[in-house]
What does this fold into?
Amino acid sequence: MKFMLTSKGDETSDALCKKMRQYLEDFDLKWDPEEPDLVISVGGDGTLLSNFHRYKARLAETAFIGVHTGHLGFYADWTPQEVEKLVIDIAKTPFDVVEYPLLEVMVSYINGDSAARYLALNECTVKCVEGSLVMDVTIKNDHFETFRGDGLCISTPSGSTAYNKALGGAIVHPSLEAIQLAEMASINNRVFRTVGSPLILPKHHTCLLEPVNDVDFTVTIDHLTLLHKDVQSIQCKVAKEKVRFARYRSFPFWSRVRESFIGDAE
Ligand code: NAD
It folds into this structure.
C-alpha cells in the first residue's frame, strides 16, 4: 500500500509524522505523495481539510485518516497514544471504507468566463464584505426567497458540526445524502422576509444563489476564501463524488458529537 503523511506544521505534529513514516516504512509500506492509497493527516481537522483539497482529483482512489495533536477533531479522531496500534493495523489489515457526501459548488460569471466547479468537505459560505448581501434563493428551479443579511452557509452532513452548527443549523448524520442551507443574520421585518430556519435539501435538489445588489462578497470553500467578481450565480448540490475515510475501528458519528460538544459530564 502507498501512503502519504502530512503534519499541521507544529513541533508535536512534525515529530509524530516522522515517527509514523518511519514505522510504516519499516513495515515495507511505500511513501508516495503523488498517488497515495492512504493519506494520513497529523494535526487537526484543518490538516485533513487541506489534504482533502490536495487530493480531490483522486477521491475514488484515496482514503483519508486523521490523528489529532490538539483537541478531538471530527475528521482527526485518532489520538497520538493510539498511533502505534494504528500503524500496525495499517500495515497488517485491509481497511474498511466509510463514505461521506460532498457539496458541489458551481460559480457562473456574468462576463462569460467559464463556470468554476468546487468540491467542499465542510461547507461553502457566501458572505458580504460590508453592507448587506441580497441574494435570490432558488430551490429546485422555483424562486424560494430573497435573502438579506450577512450571508448564507451551505454545508455537507459532516460539515454540519462545523460553521453550520455555530449558525444554529441541525447536525445531520453523514449517511444522509443531503446539503443544508443556513442563514447568517438575516434581516426580517415588515419589508424583508426569509424563512428563518435552516433547510435540508436531498440529493438532486439544487440551491441556486443569485446576487441582487452590487456589494462585494466572498465565497469560501472549507478553509479557502475565494474573492469573486462578476458572479452571476452560485449553484449548490450534493456532489456525485464522495470522500472516503479509512476505518480501522468503530467511532460512531453520534459518539464523536457527544464527545466533542457535551463531554463526559455525568
Ligand atoms: P480553524 O483552525 O479556524 O478551525 C475551526 C475549528 O473548526 C477547529 O476547531 C476544527 O476542529 C473545527 N472543525 C473543522 N471541521 C469541522 C467539522 N466538520 N466538525 C466540527 N468541527 C470542525 O480553521 P480550519 O482548521 O481551517 O477549518 C476551517 C473550518 O472552520 C471551516 O470549514 C468552517 O467550518 C470552520 N469555521 C467555523 C466558524 C464558526 O464556527 N463560527 C467560523 C469560521 C470557520
About this structure: DSSP finds five helices and 16 strands in the chain. The first strand starts at residue 2 and ends at 7.
